[in-house]
Amino acid sequence: MIVSLSINGEIKIxxxxxxxxxxxxxxxxxxxxxxxxxEEATCGSCTVWIDEKPVLSCSxxxxxAEGKKITTIEGVxxxxxxxxxxxxxxxxxxxxxxxxxxIMTVLAMxxxxxxxxxxEIGHYLTGNLCRxxxxxxxxxxxxxxxEM
Amino acid sequence: MRIKEYVKPATLExxxxxLHKAGNNVILAGCTLLRTRKVDIDIAIDxxxxxxxxxxxxxxxxxxxxMTTLRDMEVHADLRMLFSGILPKTVxxxxxxxxxxxxxxxxxxxxFGLSDLLTALVSLEAEVAFFRAGKMKLAQFLEQGMPNDxxxxxxxxxxxxxxxxxxxxxxxxxxxxxNIAVAQNGxxxxxxxxxxxxxxxxxxxASQYLTxxxxxxxxxxxxxxxxxxxxxxxxxxxxxxxxxxxxxxxxVRQAVKEVLR
Lengths: 148, 261
Prior knowledge:
The complex is a heterodimer.
Chain A: E1 2-7, E2 10-15, H1 22-28, E3 47-50, E4 53-56, E5 69-71, H2 77-89, H3 99-112, H4 118-124, H5 136-147
Helix pairs in contact in A: 2-3, 2-5
Chain B: E1 3-7, H1 12-19, E2 25-28, E3 41-46, E4 55-57, E5 61-65, H2 70-75, H3 77-81, H4 86-89, H5 96-99, H6 104-109, H7 116-123, E6 127-130, E7 134-137, H8 138-144, E8 151-157, E9 162-168, E10 178-185, E11 188-194, E12 201-202, H9 204-212, H10 217-230, H11 241-260
């Protein structure tokens, strides 16, 4: 089937299978920042925005995203780079696999919550799992980033 | 799991017609569990073009379209104010991303036993409206199901004045080990217990006893004991049925007291 997707402001006409999921479609089309981890809506590595809201693209059928505004980290590159510097400064990034998903969730949180507490940050980011460096460094980096 | 064909009907009539074509045809909602499905789908029916994502509050009731996400509910300003603010508290499981996908319609239609939302909705006398079968009480639907129809919306009457929702869970975003909602509608008090881990049920004898009582400390304790005694509790990986029964009494007392305050 043919779908028209709006990805980072560009319209892409793509041929997909009815059972393709968005994360795979994005990766196949060059948006390789989108990582696939658990592939069952748990780990958060595949987080992208649909209509400005963070979702788990591994579980969104690509056809369902037609007509909606999809944003990957490539679409918010400048903002992402600023946050990434804070993450690196706190030693958060080891393998880095979860980081694009984490950044997409943090940037969504920044738009949604004004002056979140550490508990609110923790709750918002509960769907982004990191198996290398843990969460304390992430929290320090994000708090500093939000205070910037 | 394979999907052979994917359709986005423009009307509920079309969606219903496709659902009843020969084959294993499935309505898609938030798709949060789709990747864990083992059985192939002949036609996947996506309802996203049907305008079923809305929350409308009138003087008499709240209507929530079936495609309303749990996150829509969580952040809705009116829902935070109504029924002592219990509804947003019942949809805080999993992650923000998951709640941006999961819908109230699928939560209800799948009759998830561990759902906090369904327990609260039963206590508030919510109704479900189907495309063909029309309206019925959510509590009745949870008992009997409604195969091969399309859930359009959930309707919550605004008759409940005060409500309390309590749950026991290991982490704030985990499924509950037990959840309890108590709601006051006029002089009637209704106690609903869910995550037993079966579907939520009204503790009928306990509710009747409490409604007719003088709300003394003894009355509340007796109602709590009745509630724990009249429903069944089972084991699962989160806890045993016996443990659930033991904590049930305490949590019912807590919820009733909160409502009476």
